[in-house]
């Protein structure tokens, strides 16, 4: 499969097996093309990325199973995500966040502006999980549903979490090769697998409420980690800012067998703004799929982002070797400091 923008997709699609299963020259070429697409769009689709479509189907099966649990179970103290503790220096997401709990914000950190943003609820609910073991300082226990409630859920996600992490390391190797860095350059900063796997459910919602700006699925934002791998169902609604005209958005249509990969702000900063973290949002699904039967409710939607994050205790400085005579655009920062700054703005009440 050639790496190119195809007529049915507005973003480039790459066959990732060209990087994973080829000789060195093909690997290098694929990585260069992928890096070029990330410089332009910040978003790509990948196919043949080494996780079977069966497993991806199971991913959505388990997410639906979780969100079909009665509210009193999802909101029980064992599953509900704890509130941020005032004055805490770190906050790690685990467990269930009901509708309206998170408000995506962009470059807004003061209390008053954050309060104003919160007038429009993000109509999504989600379940977060992270690694099971590792550096104690940055670990929060996962808040698994018990085996009585959802037998097999925990086991499935423990396995998927690891497979997702392995894929993320491969993507990091691809990026490093494409940028002419040592292949393990980025993976050396991602040894703790301190990622976040999120099962998002957007319940059916009145189309009018979204269109009138009374509710949002997810307003325009950039992701803030290293990179995100995103799996979505077939409903649609995800849009990415058009690099040629950033006020306009292009549809990141669901494509069978493809996952989306996008660059986060942390990696943008790290690469001295060479790799792009692009704005994206989730709007109502395309009308032609829905209004035919007079449906005024936007269909429910499931998506599963896997947010990849660097080891909290490691500090990154801008890589200036990617451009001739470049000066660092930002001072060095630790992953912990950076992620705290961003998560606190997102969850402030
Ligand atoms: O639901 C989606 O397709 C995108 C979700 C997203 O952008 C996010 O959670 O950061
Ligand atoms: Fe996002």
Automatic annotation (TrEMBL):
Top-level lineage group: Eukaryota
Gene Ontology MF terms in the entry: metal ion binding; oxidoreductase activity
Nucleotide-binding keyword on record: no
Keyword Oxidoreductase among UniProt keywords: yes
Record PROSITE patterns: FE2OG_OXY
Keywords of the record: Iron, Metal-binding, Oxidoreductase
GO BP annotation list: small molecule biosynthetic process
Pfam families found in the cross-reference section: 2OG-FeII_Oxy, DIOX_N
Boundaries of every Fe2OG dioxygenase domain copy: 192-310
Chain coiled-coil ranges: none
Family: Belongs to the iron/ascorbate-dependent oxidoreductase family.
Protein name, as recorded: Fe2OG dioxygenase domain-containing protein
Species of origin: Exophiala viscosa
């Amino acid at each position: 499969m050639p790496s190119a923008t195809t007529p049915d997709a507005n973003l480039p699609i790459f066959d990732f097996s060209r990087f994973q299963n080829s000789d060195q020259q093909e690997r290098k070429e694929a990585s260069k093309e992928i890096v070029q697409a990330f410089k332009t769009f910040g978003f790509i689709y990948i196919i043949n990325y080494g996780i079977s479509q069966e497993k991806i189907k199971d991913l959505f099966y388990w997410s639906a199973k979780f969100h079909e649990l009665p509210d009193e179970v999802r909101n029980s103290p064992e599953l509900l995500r704890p509130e941020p503790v005032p004055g805490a220096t770190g906050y790690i997401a685990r467990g269930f966040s009901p509708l309206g709990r998170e408000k995506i914000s962009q470059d807004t950190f003061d209390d008053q502006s954050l309060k104003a943003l919160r007038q429009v609820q993000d109509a999504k609910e989600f379940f977060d999980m992270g690694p099971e073991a590792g550096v104690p300082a940055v670990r929060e226990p996962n808040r698994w549903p018990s085996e009585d409630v959802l037998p097999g859920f925990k086991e499935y996600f423990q396995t998927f979490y690891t497979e997702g992490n392995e894929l993320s390391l491969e993507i990091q190797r691809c990026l490093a090769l494409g940028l002419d860095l040592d292949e393990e350059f980025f993976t050396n900063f991602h040894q703790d697998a301190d990622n976040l796997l999120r099962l998002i459910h957007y319940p059916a919602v009145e189309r009018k409420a979204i269109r009138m700006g009374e509710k949002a699925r997810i307003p325009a934002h950039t992701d803030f980690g290293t990179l995100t791998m995103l799996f979505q169902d077939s409903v649609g609604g995800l849009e990415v800012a058009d690099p040629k005209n950033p006020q306009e958005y292009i549809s990141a249509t669901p494509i069978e067998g493809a996952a989306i990969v996008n660059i986060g702000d942390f990696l943008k900063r790290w690469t001295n703004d060479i790799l792009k973290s692009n704005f994206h949002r989730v709007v109502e699904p395309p009308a032609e799929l829905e209004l035919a039967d007079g449906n005024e409710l936007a269909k429910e939607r499931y998506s599963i982002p896997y947010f990849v994050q660097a080891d909290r205790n490691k500090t990154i400085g801008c890589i200036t070797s990617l451009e001739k005579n470049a000066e660092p655009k930002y001072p060095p920062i630790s992953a912990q400091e950076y992620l705290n700054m961003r998560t606190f703005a997102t969850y402030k009440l």
